[in-house]
Amino acid sequence: MQYIVTAYDGTDEKALDRRLAAREEHLESVKKRYKDGQHLYGAAILDDDGKMIGSMMVVDYPSREELDEWLKVEPYIVGNVWKEIEIQPCSVAPIFMKPSQ
Q: Which of 11, 50, 81, 99 shows the greatest Cβ crowding within 10 Å of its Cβ?
């Protein structure tokens, strides 16, 4: 099942520092999950000044429970970056899906 994950960083003065500290590990994690077909798309959410304030991802997991297992080890959660997370089921149109590799 596919899901949209929208996650907002904390708003305290150290929020961007926490994001940057966890970013490399987060990107490596996403790279692996993208290759495995679990993460389909992602983007940083920016404020009006272009500063990263959150993330949006479209992911594909067999169940919500398996998505929740990923969240337990997601570097932006472990690193206390994401403070508000919304998860919604979705269905990506076939035209946007890459053929299996």
A: 81
